[in-house]
Amino acid sequence: MAAIVLVPGFWLGAWAWEDVTPELRAAGHHVYPLTLAGLADRASEATPDVDVYTHIDDIVRVIEENDLRDVVLVGHSGGSVPVTGAADRIPERIARVVYVDAGPLPDGMAVIDFNKPQTQDEWRKQVAEEGEGWRLPVPPFDPAAEPDSLAGLTGEHLVRIRKLATPQPFATATRPLDRPTAPSDTPSVVIASTFTPDQVRMMADSGNPIFGPMARMDLRHLPTGHWPMFSRATELAALLDEIAR
Fold first, then answer.
1. pLDDT the model gives residue 82
2. Which residues contact 48 (CB under 8 A, 6 or more apart)?
3. What angle do CA 67, 71, 87 make, to 5 degrees?
4. What's the pLDDT band for 209 if we cut at 50, 70, 90?
């Protein structure tokens, strides 16, 4: 059985994995769902200085303090960046990296750079007007505005997410990850939800620098919206169990 570390995406905490964790523990795994600094039950730690490297430190600390080895390190969405950084820093402890509806960003790219220019402008405006210049407010999670991203979520899911989500320290989105000249060659898996493996390969063939590395990974498909830990928790847990074995 594996040690599985679960890292949530933006605005979320360890609570986001509450429907996945019991399934994995029932399968015999040792599971560590994380809340990163400045979020959820650690919201009091939020400062303008909390950035992607703060979150890398969080992940590495949990793994080292618990002396975890052969770790299956799972990152959802924006959590993929600190997961990549942690795997680069302590590759000897990581057996596999799993990206949930995400992938590793190229060296020098930040989360905000992955978004469309319109989204980047909207984020910066929200941070300036509602986030005191350093916090990214929680989005409305409106299915009418984001039908694809929020596909599969029930009304109960949406109520829970809106209630528990917390603003994201904006430096985690704007500070890029500087990767080693020779990044670790840890085996990696992509669980694609809002895109398909074929789309990844097509984008890679077009020369897209983001999807190129993903196309060489183990690609799995779990069709749903961008939040499969809520919309298809049982199926996501089963996939993680399969990958961990």
1. 98
2. 133, 134, 169, 170, 171
3. 95
4. confident
Closest CA to 215 of 231, 225, 232, 202: 202
Q: What is the pLDDT of residue 162?
A: 98
Bridge partners for 97 per DSSP = 73, 188
Residue 177 DSSP label: P
* Contact by Cβ (8 Å): 184, 96: no
Q: Is 32 helix (H, G, I), strand (E, B) or coil?
A: strand
Task: Round to whole Å and give the CA distance between 40 and 43.
Answer: 5
DSSP states along 142-175: -TTT-TTTTTT--HHHHHHHHHH--PEETHHHHS
Q: How many CA atoms lie within 13 A of 16 on its CB side?
A: 28
Q: Are 19 and 42 in contact (CB under 8 A)?
A: no
| Entry field: residues in the chain | 245
Quick check: 1 and 158 in contact, CB under 8 A?
no
Q: Which bin fits 77, alpha (ψ -120 to 50), beta or left (φ > 0)? A: left
What does pTM read for this prediction? 0.97
- 156: tokens are 């109960």
Query: Tokens 């089963």 map to which residue?
Result: 238
β-pairing, 135-136 vs 94-100, is: unpaired
Round to whole Å and give the CA distance between 104 and 143. 27
Q: Which residues on adjacent β-strands are paired with residue 4? A: 31, 72
